[in-house]
């Protein structure tokens, strides 16, 4: 019985990868070869359509609205399916190479390829709306339960939420910022933790509506790091700024050349930069490795049945391991971002 269950799980994993990731490329790989780089980056980059799968050579995807403003013709709005397969619509098309590759561009009156003002609803934006909706549902559902059941011990989903919130608030936020100063920052840090966690988990799900690489987008991590930067420096104490511009160091490191003040001031910007890069790089690397391992199945098609079968087993096992590791990383990165943000805020609130 257990062997049958394990075999069924293995079959479903293979089928899931086939349908959701690279099955359409399998037929082409036998004729033209497979472009691993194109497949990997097409799945982790943002897009103007939400690809679901392909069936009988036909792409099944959700066309998203494109909203652009031309410098010559003004605003224009249309669905992204008008730009499929290199087509042009109202002089707009998706660039295939150059610095604007994968983005909507247009040709101006001088024949130059330029980027219009682009406020389109892309896959990552839709993923953000989805994750924000899930976050609101989770928070409001938990708050509604406590409102209806005062002075009762929660169980199930609400009990899990209480356990997570209590651990983050008591073990991370209070310990890092202080039991008296933590309250103004608690809501922000808890929101950041659950926002990153939900987006990381959505990115692991390979089927619609999952798969949006939100925290693997450096623009998203930059905004999160920027919020922490504002929280740290806007509400910092006088002692914090004194340590920045006149740190406790030998006088020859401060005068006549302000070596240590420069180093401390430079650190104000490197801390949020490290937050941004750490989250982006870890999530991006995990998705890239899983996709690259999956491509082994199709790369080895031309090497014979035995080699392809063996590499398929190896690829599935490694992908299963990497998905488990990605689940750990999804939780760990949300925790680390919250912990470091709380530590930075705590350092800025310390008083002599």
Automatic annotation (TrEMBL):
Primary localization class, coarse: membrane
Residues making up the signal peptide according to the UniProt record: 1-27
UniProt-listed Pfam families: ATP-synt_A
Domain of life assignment: Bacteria
Intracellular or extracellular location(s): Cell membrane; Membrane
TM region positions: 121-140, 188-208, 214-236, 257-277, 289-320, 327-347
Keyword Signal among record annotations: yes
Topology term for the membrane: Multi-pass membrane protein
Record CDD domains: ATP-synt_Fo_a_6
Matches recorded under Gene3D superfamilies: ATP synthase, F0 complex, subunit A
Keywords from the UniProt entry: ATP synthesis, Cell membrane, CF(0), Hydrogen ion transport, Ion transport, Membrane, Signal, Transmembrane, Transmembrane helix, Transport
SUPFAM superfamilies assigned to the protein according to its UniProt record, in alphabetical order: F1F0 ATP synthase subunit A (SSF81336)
Known function: Key component of the proton channel; it plays a direct role in the translocation of protons across the membrane.
Family: Belongs to the ATPase A chain family.
Protein name: ATP synthase subunit a
Lineage: Bacteria, Pseudomonadati, Bacteroidota, Bacteroidia, Bacteroidales
